[in-house]
Amino acid sequence: MQLEIINPANGKEIAKINQDNKASLSEKFNDLKKGQLDWQAKTVEQRRKIIMIFHDLLEKNIETLAEILTSEVGKPTQQSRNEINGARARISWLCSNAGKYLADEYMVEQEGMGEKIAYEPLGVICNISAWNYPYLVGINVIVPALLAGNTVLYKPSEFSSLTGLEIQKLLLEAGVPANVFEIAIGKGNIGAALLEMAFDGYFFTGSYKTGQYIYKKVAPKMVPCQIELGGKDPLYVTNDVEDLKNIAIGTADGAFYNNGQSCCSVERIYVQEKNYDAYVQAFVEEVKSWKAGLPTEEGVYLGALTRPEQIEILENQVKDALEKGAKLECGGKRINKPGNYFEPTVLSNVTNDMLVMQEESFGPIIGIMKVKDDEQAIHLMNDTDYGLTASVYSVSQKRAEAILTKVNSGTGYWNCCDRVSAALPWSGRKHSGFGATLSHAGIRAFTKPKAYHLRGDWKK
Ligand code: NAD
Fold first, then answer.
1. Is the CB of 317 under 6 A from ligand 1?
2. With 90 as the cut, is the pLDDT of residue 145 above it?
3. What per-residue confidence (pLDDT) applies to 1?
4. Which CATH number fits domain 233-414: 3.30.930.10, 3.40.390.10, 3.40.309.10, 3.60.10.10?
């Protein structure tokens, strides 16, 4: 069976690639099982050197890789380049810090008695991934898993399979043995088939619906299962800020970058009364200034949406909001031309019961709501099933942190939004999932700690 790859910018087929089946998956799994002990036997430094060659290959091939990424997910070519460069920065951080966090940790160093923790790899891990940032979310798992001595079966999304194949090609070119990294091509049924196999850990990035299904299926295996899901990320602009134009520019980018298809896109905005009108005006001005169109065209900020199904969700959110009394500031409908396009849409006078403020939009749409005070803002920010990130704009760090401690999210931002750091854990709460990638926690997530009690003349 073959998988058709469609260019979302024009609806045309760009490739047909071979899909996996149960037999090919099981062959790949057996290969990875065989390769694991040899890979584990290498030092972290040997593995790090190979991964850094992969990092350099990404840089060398960036133009071709960006072109392929844009052709299958529809993001502007410059945003594809940005993603690859962002992935390189993450790889550098992970490679620079893997030695430190994977080394044996001595907890007690007494004469005649030593106690240490060794971080052993999990074994053969399965990574089922999303399409919106295939380099970034792929690397969050693949790189620390390999550095820690695991072998990896990587299932890219069916919407970013060409990029998945490029990642595999460059990892092998860098020197990762073929039985250390394998790829599974196909749709959800191929992901589901992986759940029937005996992996030593499952790492998933995607939607709540699939994540919940995977968690349930993996539970009886009693192996680690880490789940990174969507968000409905709130942003609150308080009354003490003044530079509303620049705040509007920065936060509009946080909502609309990558056409709003980021797990940490700003999805809801609350503005304290005094600043509401001026903020909405500056925000809408910024949104109207962007160029939308073919993602390969120079200067385009909003390209095509990756999945055609998302357009109906956005149309429904607009309809629901208008029926419940929202004001359409701009946009509001699909753009009628081949490919998946939707006008950048701003809704003001929204209320929290509207779909646009409750369900993950994952598209170029935002609702902006007026709030009275911090207490109301905190209540509304928490009024969601999700808990990925939350952001507060204020002149006071103290005020922002006091608000953020009361918001149940894995990440808190003061005067910034829609950003990820390799040095900090990336983790969700509630329906945004659990576990962590990135940071020391995201390196050790791919290990199992072993406790050593060393009585006698112990040595490091
Ligand atoms: P999705 O759940 O539709 O698919 C994700 C992956 O799961 C794909 O590879 C798909 O083929 C596979 N899959 C589908 N059904 C399956 C099944 N029954 N069993 C096993 N695998 C199955 O999600 P998506 O549309 O690819 O990604 C978008 C979602 O991902 C959004 O909700 C977004 O917020 C979230 N996301 C989260 C993060 C994060 O770090 N928290 C990062 C990126 C994206």
1. no
2. yes
3. 84
4. 3.40.309.10
Helix, strand and coil content of the chain, in percent to the nearest 5, comes to 45, 25, 35
Pocket test for ligand 1, best of 72, 213, 259, 263 (most atoms within 8 A of CB): 263
How far is residue 1's CA from residue 323's CA, in Å, rounded to a whole number? 45
Residues 370-404: tens digit of each pLDDT: 999 999 999 999 999 999 999 999 999 999 999 99
pTM of the model: 0.97
Cα 449 to averaged position of ligand 1 atoms, centre (Å): 29
Is 228 an active-site residue? Answer: yes
* Residue found by looking up tokens 């081949």 in the block: 338
Q: Which fold has domain 2-229+432-455?
A: Aldehyde Dehydrogenase; Chain A, domain 1 (3.40.605)
Atom of ligand 1 at shortest range from CA of 140: 40
Mean of the pLDDT values across residues 255-261?
A: 98
Phi–psi pair at 198, nearest 5 degrees: -100, 55
pLDDT digits (tens, 9 = 90+) for 276-308: 999 999 999 999 999 999 999 999 999 999 999
What six digits make up the tokens of 115? 């106690």
Could you tell which of 5, 20, 140, 157 is best to mutate to test the pocket of ligand 1, judged by most ligand atoms within 8 Å of the CB? 157
H helix intervals, 3-129: 22-41, 44-60, 62-73, 77-102
Catalytic residue, chosen from 158, 182, 228, 286, is 228
Tell me what percent of the residues of the chain surpass a pLDDT of 70.
100
